[in-house]
Amino acid sequence: MNIAIDGPAGAGKSTIAKKLAKDLGYIYVDTGAMYRAMALYFLERGIPALDKAAVCGLADGIDISILYQDGQQQVLLNGENVNDKIRREDVGNMASAISVYPAVRQKLVALQQKIAKTADVIMDGRDIGTCVLPDAEVKIYLTASPYTRAKRRFDELKEKGEGCDLSAIQKDIEERDFRDMHRAASPLKQADDALLIDSSELGIDEVVEAIRKICRERQ
Q1: Where are the chain's structural domains?
Q2: CATH homologous superfamily of 2-218
């Protein structure tokens, strides 16, 4: 079975998908982490997102893989574990910016589809149900209000001891939403056959149980 979870930044897709995968015994494929790894590659080399020729020219030669060690996902960029680097705000913004380029998407989508053909998987991202896994048995569009998503990120950064500004985080989220929804290549949108879940007033376990119920009905 393939489960596709789409939605905007900060909606809780990764948290929900990871817990659901563990509960069901499925493989969790963090597509966002793969885009972030590619974004990190360009950031570390000082290549701006607006340099389309450079980004597209180098994308196909970048090796990104996902491994699991002791039940934990490890993202490898050209053989280097980059788990501790890819969750930065600048990496997330860069990932959103370069994901508009077809060459970037083509490289990563091919790998994601290959994984889905060989195992029960849960994938989360922006276009899983519409483009990557259009035939997924279960499709979810998970969202929350911009303020709720910004507050979650704010609390997460505060817990790590990092200085942050709630209004600035919300502004970044709203700008990222606009980019993701208006890009020419595979824009963020709810698939026609996806079920909408708004997590603004729901806890993690409530969302997981709602999706598990849907999965039981589809089996």
Answers
A1: 2-218
A2: P-loop containing nucleotide triphosphate hydrolases (3.40.50.300)
Residue 75 and residue 68: Cα distance in Å, rounded?
A: 9
Show the tokens assigned to 145: 């209000």
Burial of 33 (0-12, 13-18, 19+ CB in 10 A): buried
Which contiguous run of DSSP H or E holds residue 93?
helix 89-98
Strand ranges, E, within 12-156: 27-30, 64-69, 72-77, 80-81, 121-125, 138-143
Mean pLDDT by 10 residues, the chain (219 residues): 93 91 88 92 96 95 83 87 93 92 90 85 91 94 95 89 90 91 85 94 92 87
Q: Can you read off the two tokens belonging to residue 165?
A: 């500004």
